[in-house]
Design brief:
Blueprint: H1 9-15, E1 22-27, H2 33-40, E2 44-51, H3 54-66, E3 73-77, E4 91-97, H4 99-107, E5 118-123, H5 127-136, E6 139-149, E7 152-161, H6 172-175, H7 183-205, H8 211-224
Parallel strand pairs: 1-2, 1-4, 2-3, 4-5
Antiparallel strand pairs: 5-7, 6-7
Length: 232
Amino acid sequence: MEKLFSLDNRLMTCAGFVRKGTKLADIGTDHAYLPIWLAKKKLIVSGIAADIRPLPLKSGKENIEKYNCSDIITTRLSDGLDEIGEWEADDIVIAGMGGEVIAEILGRTPWIRNPGKRLILQPMTKEFVLREFLCSSGFEILKEKACTHGGKNYTVIHAAYSAAIKEYPPSFHYIGMLDEKDELSKKYMFQILKKLRFKSDGAKHDGKDSTQIDGIIEEITARFGDDSNDNG
């Protein structure tokens, strides 16, 4: 019997949001590690490992066969969710892409606007774009959890459709549902603060108005603290 691999921190955090007994779609699956791990742990009843690239999908299929998961997991060549049917997945994982790319995938998939579906999203960049899209499109962010991988800090967003369009302050698109008492969340926010301060300094250097950015920085530091002495 093959020894089961360990998931990295990003994928393990995603796995923690998957509901037991669900039908899973893993978008941008690469080597299909996440659905294989969930299948071997008997946490999903079916899984689709989807990728837009044929070579990673081939690697994923080989791994699915290697770990004897072909009866549970199938592979699918798909640009985002384009080739996935509404009846095929209830928990959708999209990890390892930019926030704007994830938002674009979700925006062209009407069937995810169903309160019974769950989105598990791990943006690599531009998280604020993704949160803004979710909030303005009737999705509710249920929970977030920060994680560290490769020396960088990321967040995993758990969301569902509610049809309600809620107004949030601009800082929410950067803070989301992260817990200021959690040390990993603080590290993540300190990373975001550095980017915002760089953006603010650039605006001031160019003679542009930085009032909104500075207000966001102020709101984040009020909740998460001052990162000025943090090098993470």
